[in-house]
Amino acid sequence: MSDVLEELSGPAREAVRTATLTAPRSVSWFVPGRIELLGKHTDYAGGRSLLAAVDVGHTVSATARPDRLLVVRSEVADGVVTIDLDQRHARPAEEGDGHWSGYVRTVADRLDANFPGRVRGADLTVTSTLPLAAGMSSSSALVVGLALCLIDLSEIAADPAFTSEITSPEQLGEYLGTVENGQSFGALAGHRGVGTFGGSEDHTAMLCAVPDALVQYSFCPVRHERTIDFQPGLALAVAVSGVEAAKTGAARDHYNRVSLAVTEILRRWNEDSGRGDITLADAIAAGPRAVDRLRELIADDDYLGGRLTQFLEESGRIIPAASEALEQEDLEGFGALVDQSQRGAETGLCNQVDETIALQRIARELGAHAASAFGAGFGGSVWALVPEQEAGAFAERWAAHYHRAHPDAVQVRTLVTRPGASAHRVTD
User: Which helix or strand (DSSP H or E) is residue 106 part of?
Assistant: First the structure.
């Protein structure tokens, strides 16, 4: 094993270790969902996020086949997905917008394009304890789990094309983010993604999370900034609103509006400045007058102005201050900063619905140290930081108060968790 590969840690190192010995005949990976405590739509703009894995997720199990077929079954989705890797450019008619098979094919197509001839046929099964379309990134967890299994079975992590570009779990997370959004990663050329213009926050959280801790990362490229111990005696209660945080169909258009606003701000900036900045963070860092000029360039569009303000506040001020408050065990200060983040989502991103707004307000009224909606928005879930011993009772009161205020709303599901481990192999 080369010196570069020796430096790998976590799941990426384990995948390489197995690949350099012998490809397994079967393998299973558990991939957790994630909670984005802070970092609303910041990652693809080059900003930062504060993240944790949860203790629920997908388990993807794979057994090698002698042919070049991928046969994928899921206990939580209808149908069997069969992909002939030698016919990968053909998309079956039933795989329209929103079909889970699109994520399966996206992973298979990208790995086969970047590492030609390496991907082995396999029978794969997906089981899950993760609520779907709840904002905990079940779709990205599927992408990560499928990729880890196929990388293992196919010895991809020993391929020079892999080792020359991916030398850490962070880089693996960033690469898998581009698998989903269709962009290139270094020399690993982009391929058709799933149609959403997101970043690599979810994939990074799933591969780099630390048990009983929060991790702060910045993106484009992925950089670890700090790890913050999660105080003993605290827990995260999560209320799943029942409004699906889908990234397909009409919901995908709403999601993409938020990210495409960043693209438009950058287009105007680069056209005006003659620069070629890739991310909004790069443009902001261009000079002392950059923010003022950005505001001038988008003064004709209220949504673009709100989007810029939300990014500046969330990434540049709120997250560093909130992390410092947690390190100092200042829960009151942390809660106030999280409230500001929530308002930024409501007024800047405009990606909140009545249900998530109400759940956040009620959580704070019931005494949560902090609470916020998280994920793509337009539905999904809200997290609340509460005393661990009271978390179960808090979750019940939370749901009950919500239904008294909104009797026609769908039933809210709740769960209680502490920050969990990153993706890992499942052994018998």
Answer: helix 101-114
Judge whether 369 and 343 are in contact, CB under 8 Å: no
Pairing assessment for the beta strands 122-128 and 69-74 based on DSSP bridges: parallel
Distance CA 120, CA 152 (A): 10
Cβ atoms of 373 and 356 closer than 8 Å: yes
CATH number, domain containing residue 395: 3.30.70.890
Q: What is the pLDDT of residues 16-52, one digit of tens each?
A: 444 444 567 999 999 999 999 999 999 999 999 999 9
pLDDT, residue 123, reads 98
How many residues appear in the chain? 428
Whether residue 253 sits in one domain with residue 223? no
Domains in the chain: how many in total? 2
Shared-domain flag, residues 210 and 238: no
Look at the pTM and tell me if it is higher than 0.70.
Answer: yes
- pLDDT by residue (tens digit) across 144-154? 999 999 999 99
Q: How many CB atoms lie within 10 A of CB 322?
A: 27
pLDDT for the residue 242: 84
Q: CA angle, corner 21, sides to 15 and 24, nearest 5?
A: 65
Mean pLDDT across the chain, nearest whole number? 90
Q: Which domain holds residue 202?
A: 3-229+421-425
Distance CA 25, CA 13 (A): 19
Provide the pLDDT confidence category of residue 6 given band limits of 50, 70 and 90: very low
> Are both 216 and 258 inside the same structural domain?
no
CB atoms within 10 A of CB 124: 23
